[in-house]
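for the record, two folds in this file. i put them one after another cuz i was lazy. first one right below, seq on top, structure tokens after. the second one comes after a little note so u can tell where it starts
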Amino acid sequence: MRSYDVVAELSLYMIRRRQMSMSMKLFGAVVMSVGIGFAGGFAGGFTGAAWAAEGTADVPASVAEGKDFGCGAKGQKACPMQGWMKTVMQSATTSGDGAKIAAALDHVASKPPPGMPKWVAISKEGAEKAKKGDIEGAKASCKACHDLYKAEYKAKHRDATF
């Protein structure tokens, strides 16, 4: 899945979550004003809770809790690692310069987030491939790290200094 697909999916999830929150408030107000009572409203077949439960099955806890990092979303500044990746790493990989890619991957290896035990090994493996001129192998290491950690990193550490 491409990064913009993940961002779009996350944005849609957050929109649905806000809509659900507003629907719940409206529903609660209607139920209370009509005098049916809280229990009667749900007994009448309200399905919003089922939608909310199934919509959060594979969403990281910090995202499901609605944590706002203040960066990375449309109209916001880039998060620290996101900005670094767009300027330094993207420039290095686009250039095809093995030394630049290796230096960037070594920098990434020096900044492992907690709970991501393969981060350093993957980065160092990519750096070694780049030093040997295996640019595609180095890019494959990037993909392996993204596949393994990108969603979790964005959900837990996206505002961390990098």
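(here's the note) second protein begins now
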Amino acid sequence: MEVRFRRSSRRLLGRIACVGLVIMSAFALVGVIAFDNSWYDFFPHGPMLLLGAVGFTAQLRRQGGLPLRLTRDFLELTLPGGAPVRIDWPDVALAEVRGRLGPILVVDVADPERTRPVLSRWEWGRLGMWDMTRVRRPHEIHVSLIAVTPDVRRLRAELAHRLGRSAGDVPADSDG
């Protein structure tokens, strides 16, 4: 069975609208309390929020990784140019979803020479996104899952199912 994950425009727009509403409310409250501005004055902060929303959307579109495809035999990510990269399940050392508000798929490739196509040393930096908060392993890929459809819970379940099957060649209760 094959499962595809992609970024949903509706979910992305809904997320941006919710965050914008919270930020605008905070700006309005600060403006009323600290600067004695009227709460409904959109002009001072509206353009900044609009530019932030457009920049955030452009950054997500430029980033590689999605659409993401999980099949019985491999995990397929997408380079920023649109070319697919396939990683067989036995070659995936780690695949997990981290975070709740800004979920990130972390994939660590055990043998980078067995990806299809084989990526050069410089191409690994183009795949996924850089997470500056922690040190990355050389062949670790980070893919932002903000506004992905089907949802992140489904991706977690599929990863557990696929990695459980590929790692469980020998049953755990056997002695040999």
